Amino acid sequence: MKLVNRPRRLRNGAQLRSMVRETRISADTLIYPMFVQEGENICEEIESMPGQYRWSLDRVDELLEKVLQSGVKSILLFGIPDHKDEIGSSAWDPNGIIQKAVHYIKKRYPQLYIITDVCMCEYTSHGHCGILCGRDVDNDKTLEVLAKIALSHVQAGADMVAPSDMMDGRVRRIREILDKNQYTNVPIMSYSAKYASAFYGPFRTAAGSAPAFGDRKSYQMDPHNGREALLEAKLDLQEGADILMVKPGMAYLDVLQSLKQQFYQPVALYSVSGEYAMIKAASMAGYVDEAALVCESAVCMYRAGADLLITYYAMELAKYIQEGRIG
Q1: Helix/strand/coil percentages in the chain, nearest 5
Q2: H-assigned helices in 80-169
Q3: Which of 194, 260, 280, 319 is catalytic?
Q4: One of 73, 84, 247, 319 is an active-site residue; which one?
Q5: pTM for this structure?
Q6: Quick check: is 247 catalytic?
Q7: Can you give the three-state secondary structure of the chain, one letter per residue?
Q8: E-assigned strands of the chain?
Q9: Does the annotation mark 107 as catalytic?
């Protein structure tokens, strides 16, 4: 048979496949999310996320050394406080868990790039992401609190802040307070398209942040909507966001691709706790090849347009990149 076009020619051998690869992955683009908790001598495995832990500051070096050895250079911090109240006051306390963690890590590991999650759900007694008015979250009152939280993180030494609350106008308010306090060079990575997703279940167990009543559907996005993500991203950029984000990951790659095609700013993807837990559970049961599935999933996310990937498998992916299993 006389064939002129044979796509298989460029698949003939590992070296050639690597040369013509369309999607390339670097450890520089991986961000590892981690949980820091008030207390001492805490290294507590998260039941819903095997292999992930809550760490007290006196033991967090054990994790950070592994992060650096893996080749991952960026972390996303979530705090678990001792004290919770109606207004989440420990979230902006200069001696709060995130503020202390940022200060400690920046001093001990200046080579790590520290991103902090800016939200209230871990700090409020009711588990919602803002200030309540009755049983509803008051958007505009919450903005002032979020701004205080972001400023306290940056004052502690955070390199970047990432508001995840999904309140309207929060990027603008955070940008204003940072600029007013001479932090004009601190970037904002906005959770622009954060969906009201069942994939967050294990995280809420890990952080103790499940709502005490109701749900978050009045402020997080409806999974049925794709075009709305473009509006959210456009507004965030107008308000001063430097990086956009889509959350969750695998089930929302169409949204990620839409943002990538529409905007020029970097787009991050958060492969969330539920995604991690499903792969981990299936691999522990012997149903799947964990490493192969982690690599393939990551390739899909980057192929769809992710410039940055937030994932609990960041250290493993960095290792697989070094081994040439993915890249």
Answers
A1: 45, 20, 40
A2: 97-108, 139-156
A3: 194
A4: 247
A5: 0.94
A6: yes
A7: CCCCCCHHHHHCCHHHHHHCCCCCCCHHHEEEEEEEECCCCCEEECCCCCCCEEECCCCHHHHHHHHHHHCCCEEEEEEECCCCECCCHHHCCCCCHHHHHHHHHHHHCCCCEEEEEECCCCCECCCCCCCEECCEECHHHHHHHHHHHHHHHHHHCCCEEEECCCCCCHHHHHHHHHHHCCCCCCCEEEEEEEECCHHHHHHHHHHCCCCCCCCCCCCCECCCCCHHHHHHHHHHHHHCCCEEEEECCHHHHHHHHHHHHHCCCCEEEEECHHHHHHHHHHHHCCCCCHHHHHHHHHHHHHHHCCCEEEECCHHHHHHHHHHCCCC
A8: 30-37, 43-45, 53-55, 74-80, 113-118, 132-133, 136-137, 160-163, 189-194, 243-247, 267-271, 308-311
A9: no
106-133 per-position pLDDT tens digit = 999 999 999 999 998 889 988 788 888 8
234-248 confidence digits (pLDDT tens): 999 999 999 999 999
